[in-house]
Amino acid sequence: MKAIFLEKPGGPLIIKEVEIPVPSKGEVLVKIAAAPVNPSDIARIKNAHSEYDLDTFIPGIEGSGTVIKAGRGILPGLWLGKRVACSSGHGSGGTWAEYMVTPAANCFPLSQNVSDEQGSMSLVNPLTAIAFFDIAKREGHKAVINNAAASALGRMVELLGKRKNIPVINIVRKKEQADTLRSLGSRYILISSDPLFTKQLESLSAELKATILFDSVCGRQFSDLISVLPYGSKVVVYGNLSGEEHPVFDPRVLLGKNITIEGFYLANQAKENGMIRNIMNLRKVSKLMQTGMTIKINRTFPLSEGQQAVDTYLENMSAGKVLLVP
Amino acid sequence: MKAIFLEKPGGPLIIKEVEIPVPSKGEVLVKIAAAPVNPSDIARIKNAHSEYDLDTFIPGIEGSGTVIKAGRGILPGLWLGKRVACSSGHGSGGTWAEYMVTPAANCFPLSQNVSDEQGSMSLVNPLTAIAFFDIAKREGHKAVINNAAASALGRMVELLGKRKNIPVINIVRKKEQADTLRSLGSRYILISSDPLFTKQLESLSAELKATILFDSVCGRQFSDLISVLPYGSKVVVYGNLSGEEHPVFDPRVLLGKNITIEGFYLANQAKENGMIRNIMNLRKVSKLMQTGMTIKINRTFPLSEGQQAVDTYLENMSAGKVLLVP
Fold first, then answer.
1. Mutation target among A261, A269, A272, A273 for the B interface, most CBs of B within 10 A
2. What's the CA dihedral at B174, B175, B180, B181 to 10 degrees?
3. How many Cα atoms occupy the beta-carbon half-sphere of A178 within 13 Å?
4. Out of 3.40.50.620, 3.90.180.10, 3.40.50.150, 3.30.40.10, which CATH number does the structure's domain A2-121+295-324 have?
5. A33-37, B68-72, B158-162, B300-304 — which is least confidently predicted?
6. Around Cβ A96, how many Cβ atoms within 10 Å?
7. Would you say the ipTM is above 0.85?
8. Which residue of A87, A196, B72, B139 is surrounded by the most CB atoms within 10 Å?
């Protein structure tokens, strides 16, 4: 089969011909239909060499496809022949390939009204948004702050907030992004380039008791952001869209306002949850997908243009998702 | 009475003559015998103007003295005439004065074998160290990492760890500090200027399962420190000895290793605890003091030399504590 590999640590991506893998007990073989480029894929590509052997590492955290072979066990048998959304296992084989072996517990069947393209993006973002509201509920936050709200995940957070009746303060960089969100029905939108932004965030978060910030930017504004949060707030850091810039914080703010900063990474979360919790969450996602949520797609690429796909995505993340289609 | 005030936001400290305050219900009037300069006093002086009216703000978080007047209530009456350790209330009047009014619940009696000087330092550091081990126990950390271990508080953490049979990894800056700690019986000591320091911390924290770091430095090494902690570690930030430098972190480390960074400030903690929990903690401190723990004193100053006292303390914090003696 054709699959994407890393030529060297960090890239570039190249295509190679390898054996089709064989599913063991509890696993299935999926013929991949589509697979998105996620920010977490990019982070994983950067660090793959420290965790995996580059000779066997295939990127791609999630995708969609058809189960064409089942290992022993009940669940693999159930999925055989079904069209599924799937995520890669903890091994090195990902979705950026013609075929992937993964635990059957990492798949769920797609209903007819969900396309291969939309279905391929139905795990990482929805599971992350669900996990965010689990944290918010468990810790009693009354409202949430959603940085990079124009991203696919940001929109999912807004949507889930609406369904759960939890106010979401959406932060975007540009006025056009604010206009888009407003036209989609968002109520609270702040533009981070506005000179009054931190003042606005301070008063709105105080008013709504928004004591949890989900931040995938981690940029130059980080220190300012946390300095205006209400007392006792939590910051959940789940990405680093700003790239190599490293966020700074003022220890006196952390002390004086009793702020907590916490890392969130879906794959770690999944390991900690255990299988039952993960399957329950997949059911929630499956329900969410059936309500016709769609994510904007910018372009699709064949596997042979993996590097171009990543470059296109990095050039303009808010233009929509980039998909690999074997 | 004579008391120390701030001439302008941030200082300098000046002495003024004001009325002796009168205790209300639940409060006592303490004739101050001695009061230390703590790092938290310095932070409070820097930020006092945003929280207090500088015309009435007197610095000084803790001290010792004799209760010479009691407001209504059972506890004030109990303390009348007793020599006590005391902390300032949430109002603006502190211990850097000849007299202070404070809630009786902020005092506990000193036994005869504890001097005024040692007694004056018996609240902030012991209560902080007790709170640290409460956090460690509640969250199941098997061992702790103690940055700035040569400070008065750092030594208290080491001591309490020994009593509670919880291994403490002590981090100091200089070899001489390591020698001192070793001579006092510390087992695990790392020197942060050693080129192998981060490697040593990585392997020792993994071996001992030291998954909580107490950091009052927040300096240039912050990012390196957290990058070598075990998966799932917590960093409790309780000071900023490195001064104006702001710590930086790598979001990918926070995500990948599921790290949490949390601010700790004793005064906030005390408010959250409520009175009963605070009184229980004061009892623990009182027991701790009776076992003959002593803290090194560098110099004492009269109230009229408040600014010199602070300057002397800032010049060399590990030389020992600086006390104000009215």
1. A261
2. 80
3. 13
4. 3.90.180.10
5. B158-162
6. 30
7. no
8. A87
CB contact under 8 A, B246 and A249: yes
Q: Which residue has the higher pLDDT, B237 or B125?
A: B237
Q: What CATH number was assigned to the domain covering residues A125-266?
A: 3.40.50.720
Q: What is the 3-state secondary structure (H, E, C) of A55-99?
A: CCCCCCCEEEEEEEEECCCHHHHHHCCCEEEEECCCCCCCCCECE
Token couple for B322:
């600086």
CB contacts of A249 in chain B (<8 Å) are 246-247, 249, 261
Asked if A56 reaches chain B (Cβ–Cβ under 8 Å), the answer is: no
Shortest Cα–Cα distance, A75 to chain B (Å) = 30
* CB-CB neighbors (< 8 A) of B223 in chain A: 246
Q: Is residue A237 less than 8 Å (CB to CB) from chain B?
A: yes
Instruction: Tell me the shortest Cα–Cα distance from B211 to chain A, in angstroms.
Output: 14
Mean pLDDT of A107-116: 88
Q: Is the dihedral of CA A243, A246, A250, A256 positive or negative?
A: positive
